[in-house]
Specification:
The protein has a domain of 230 residues: Phosphoglycerate mutase-like (Rossmann fold, 3-Layer(aba) Sandwich), CATH 3.40.50. The radius of gyration is 23 Å and the shape is globular. 36% of the residues lie in helices and 10% in strands. Strands 3, 4, 5, 6, 7, 8, 9 and 10 form an 8-stranded mixed sheet that branches. It has a two-stranded antiparallel ribbon with strand order 1-2. It is an alpha/beta fold. About 12% of the residues have low confidence. It starts with 7 loop residues before the first helix and ends in a 16-residue tail after the last helix. GO terms for molecular function: acid phosphatase activity. This is Phosphoglycerate mutase-like protein.
Length: 523
């Protein structure tokens, strides 16, 4: 059964701050230097929002998001904090793009179609499908334990920290109750609750014309969430923003179990593909193996620097990695984090790539199970696209990042020519976790109906892919308006992929009595 809708008081509060957040659209390419600065100057900014670019919507000042634990600690300085730490925003650097999915949502800016998200001239959107990751959250139990152990060790050491870690002397952990672990964050401009609601409003703005048809269906419009509290809450807040306060009365949120017994009829195939779970070499654990191998190439230099500043304490690889993780997680709670400035930009590029490797090899193109798991949702969605308006106009699915990576893999849309190496960072790589599936990340399939150029034939159908507000062309299938993919070619491509990856039950070591496809994804 769906969870109850948020209280009216909660919605009023969210609505009040959502207006500000809508204007805070974080466009990496649109950042600009101060008008008074020379053209070649490297302009730095101490906070994310304390400067504006000409032509951007008005937004509230950064100080309006004041948080009791987000403050400038007196006397705290680091060797990187004078406009050179990784947390400093400049014309050419935005830390949010280098958190490897551990931080706030960001737009996709790599390998996108020029022209923005506007619908191509002569076309209209007839049907929308979305697979979205839950919004910004506190760390998972595993990561939270790593962070807690580090913080406890530092606090109990009695050491007066200096250098890049001076701020720790007055710093407090960014959660006070362990019940918050793994749940959506609810404070600051990057809170998960606000982000979910805002995403709903943002998509309602684009697809409001589909709502009338959606509400005219003979039964309540359905949308779906995997059975995890943070995923369900994301769907609830999204529903409020997209459908309205009475969404629980006008729509039906279907909760899909994450139990391993569901076979292919699931939103979370990583839990039901038993071979993937059990295969230590090529399955789920492969990502962590590749992560550990790469981490060893860059963390040693950081350890030496921190040890030089604080000779009384030496940190392990896990502890230094936890410091980098805290940069993103604390930012989603308090709006910024001193942990970001402990490291240089190059050190965060390494952290970013470490997380790229983790997800690439855990559930993406780097594991042999990725495509066969992701094809399930892709195939179900393709069938609905072929049905067109008869199937219904809106299909929203909420999941985890480990479920988006397989779908992206099956779609063959973010392809690197070779598997990602663990010896160096390929500068021109396409697979970047922060842009594939950040917290709140979403991949949207739009069914376009486009008039013929001479107006003498019936409109043609095309599929356009929007990944985190970056229109992304499908390789070898981009001859349509705005580099969209003709529907018949898209369907043929999906069919070929299914033949290539094989039967889910066979590949995953399941019995013939297990479900072989998704059946719940229908209006």
């Amino acid at each position: 059964m769906p969870s109850s809708a948020p209280s009216l008081a909660t919605i009023i509060l969210i609505s009040a701050v959502a207006v500000a957040l809508l204007a805070l659209q974080w466009n990496y390419n649109a950042q600009c230097a101060s008008p008074s600065a020379p053209p070649d100057a490297e302009t730095t900014h101490s906070g994310y929002f304390d400067y504006e670019c000409a032509g951007k919507p008005h937004h509230s000042s950064w100080s309006s998001w004041w948080h009791p634990q987000r403050k400038t600690w007196s006397g705290v300085e680091s060797s990187h904090s004078h406009g050179r730490g990784a947390g400093a925003v400049t014309k050419d650097w935005n830390i949010l793009y280098h958190l490897g999915g551990n931080g706030p949502w960001v737009e996709k800016v790599v390998d996108i179609v020029e022209g923005g998200i506007a619908v191509p001239e002569g076309c209209e959107v007839e049907q929308v499908h979305m697979m979205a990751r839950h919004a910004e959250r506190y760390p998972t139990v595993r990561v939270a334990k790593r962070i807690q152990m580090l913080v406890e060790r530092m606090k109990q050491s009695g050491i007066p920290f200096t250098g890049d870690l001076t701020f720790v002397n007055d710093w407090e952990l960014f959660w006070s109750d362990d019940s918050q672990i793994e749940q959506l964050t609810a404070t600051g401009p990057f809170s998960g609750t606000l982000g979910s609601f805002t995403t709903g409003v943002r998509l309602r703005t684009r697809y409001a014309h589909l709502l009338t048809r959606a509400f005219s269906l003979p039964s309540k419009l359905k949308f779906w969430a995997s059975d995890s509290p943070r995923v369900i809450d994301t769907a609830r807040y999204f529903g409020t923003g997209f459908f309205g306060l009475d969404w629980a009365n006008t729509t039906r949120l279907e909760i899909i179990s994450e139990h391993s017994s569901l076979g292919a009829n699931t939103l979370t195939p990583g839990d039901t593909c038993l071979a993937y779970v059990e295969d230590e070499e090529e399955g789920h654990d492969k990502g962590y193996t590749m992560l550990d191998r790469y981490r060893a190439t860059y963390l040693g230099a950081i350890r030496i620097r921190l040890l030089k500043q604080n000779p009384e304490i030496e940190f392990t690889d896990d502890e230094i990695y936890a410091m980098q993780e805290m940069c993103g997680f604390e930012t989603t709670v308090r709006g910024s984090s001193h942990w970001c400035d402990v490291f240089t930009q190059d050190e965060f590029r390494s952290f970013e790539y470490a997380r790229d490797l983790l997800h690439y090899y855990r559930a993406g193109p780097g594991t042999k199970y990725g495509a066969v798991m992701g094809w399930l949702w892709l195939n179900a969605t393709t069938n609905l696209l072929l049905e067109g308006q008869r199937a219904g106009p809106l299909f929203f699915s909420f999941v985890h990042d480990g479920d988006i990576a397989p779908m992206i893999t099956a779609l063959d849309i973010i392809n690197d020519e070779e598997h990602l190496p663990i010896t160096h960072i390929p500068a021109n790589r396409k697979w970047r976790k922060s842009q594939v599936s950040p917290m709140g990340g979403r991949t949207i399939f739009e069914l376009l109906s486009c008039k013929s150029s001479d107006g003498t034939t019936d409109p043609r159908k095309y599929v356009r892919i929007n990944i985190n507000d970056g229109i992304t062309a499908i390789p070898s299938c981009d001859s349509g308006p705005g580099r969209s993919c003709p529907l018949e070619e898209f369907a043929a491509r999906t069919k070929r992929k299914g033949e290539e990856v094989g039967d889910f039950r066979e590949k995953c070591g399941l019995g013939e009595d297990a479900a072989d496809r998704i059946t719940f994804l229908r209006q």
